[in-house]
Amino acid sequence: MKKTLNLLDLVDKETLDEILDAFNEVCGIGSVIADVEGRPLSGEQNFTRFCAKYCRGTEDGRKKCYASDAFGGEMSLKQQEPYVYNCLNSGLVDCATPIIVEGYHLANLNGGQVLEEPIPKEVAIARAKAIGIEDIDGYLEELDRIPFVTKPKLQKIVKFMAVITRTLSDMAMQKYLLAKQSKEYLNKLVDSVSDCIFAIDVNFRITMVNKICHDAFGFEDGRLYGKNFYDLLDPPEKILECKSKLDQGEEDNFRVEMEGVSGDGSKFPAQVSISRINDEDGEVAGYVAILRNITEEKRHEKMKQDLVAMLSHDMRNPISAINKTLELLSTERIGTINHKQEHVIRLASNTNDQLCSMVNSFLDIFREENTNFQLNRTEFDLNAVINDCIEEQSLLLADKQLKVRHATDRECLPASLDLIRMKRTITNLLSNAINYSVTGGLISVRSRKVLGRNRDLCRILKPSVVDRVSANHKYLWIMVKDQGYGVPEEFQDAIFEKFFTVESKEGLGRRGIGLGLAFCKLVTESHGGVIFSRTPTSKPLTQKTPGCEFHLVLPASA
């Protein structure tokens, strides 16, 4: 491939613009696909007036913006990960990920035009003058309209950007492969790659491999040709299912983890990426598969899990020591304290409790993955526990001027559950609602005992959980509803996965969920219950603050 090859030779501008349109719907930030020198290849999508009218409104300003975009892509390429940085022109927060095809850096996806903190007025004025801005007041007025974004949210955006650039790279690679029919050329190309690469015909037989494939699977040179690709994988049904979906046009490519099967029958963990190749009429011409032996990655992952478990366990001692110290202070055993000091101690105690809960969640999830997670059921009043959880969040609620309304159809709601873990689950849901509620909003909590055939419950049960709720059984049903920015429907199941991140269409919504909701799911399902989220359809995500509901449905004692 020539280094002078342009991305537009492989992916047309209309497609680039469509991809950016979809990206902007999710993230809501300014974005552009630019070449390695920062010159736009796509439209400048969703740009703020500040950047479009002022920063790029002068010749010097536009040159600086181009240089900034090029710098971001270069640093991202150098660090081998998405790069977040301050724009070299105005100081706004930007981010970049490179688009790479066959090892060549063709372009960058640049996004941002947000702030993490205000820019001092005198600094902004100096920057405006440096690029020849005459309308300083207008420049400052538009700067004041730049949205603020937290670091966690920006990290989720750059992860999504990385997915987009990988997709673009795959699209460009597919076009490039279609343009090259020479088997000799392809052999030279793929033999230089450290991963196993397979060319597969429409009957799923191997037609070409790179040299490393024979070494990885223990076959003599040439012995892999003509073999069924699925014979090299276990279970073969999994890769055949991917092929079926590719053939039906449901997906363009798949990435799955399976086991590779060597010639001697031994197995090794492998990551397989497979893409469909079309002919000029859009029909299946074959497939390209990339297989990587991930034995080392699995070993490192196990080491990481062991380290997390060890650190989480060892962190309990200093957390307990802090709790004892705060208890000594709050009970005035070592001296009297005033009202302000008491307030600060309560804040520190709440924060320490959250840290303790986080450590315990790490440990519980680790135990579950290693089959050591056990429940300790006791009898208690669920309504009283909910009220205690609300009270413990009072300082955080007051800080955001939030109100909580707890509605229940009975004064006492008996439960036979793991009290400590259930309390942490409810606290996680409340904390989640607080984090993503707008200031001055309302959080609604409802708890009641219902039959599985309850009309209100049946109306909202998700297809993914409806089969796990029996019509004639009794359930404890808890709902926590906020007035935040909601969760897009396509992500409402995935948010309960570990370390899953998600953006709203406005780019202002839920900044991603790590272990909190994964822990809630673990506890709920361990009790035989279900948990799911929904954003009320009466107020779509295109409007502000549609809110989000989290529903916890647990089997009730008789």
Gist?
The chain has helices spanning 13-27, 49-55, 59-79, 121-130, 136-143, 151-179, 183-191, 211-217, 236-247, 295-330, 339-369, 382-392, 394-399, 419-435, 455-460, 516-526, and strands at 30-35, 83-86, 93-101, 104-114, 196-200, 206-209, 233-234, 253-261, 267-278, 284-293, 377-381, 403-408, 414-418, 442-451, 474-481, 530-534, 549-555. With 558 residues, the protein is α+β, with helices and mostly antiparallel strands.
> Tally the helices: what do you get?
16
Q: How would you classify the helix and strand content by structural class?
A: alpha+beta
> Low-confidence spans: pLDDT under 50, at least 5 residues?
504-513
Number of strands: 17
Strand order of the largest sheet: 6-5-10-9-8-7
Radius of gyration, CA atoms, in whole angstroms: 28 Å
Distance between the termini: 71 Å
Give the amount of beta strand, in percent: 15-25%
Shape: globular
Oligomer status: single chain
Mean pLDDT, nearest integer?
84
The portion of residues assigned to helices is 40-55%
Largest sheet: 6 strands, antiparallel
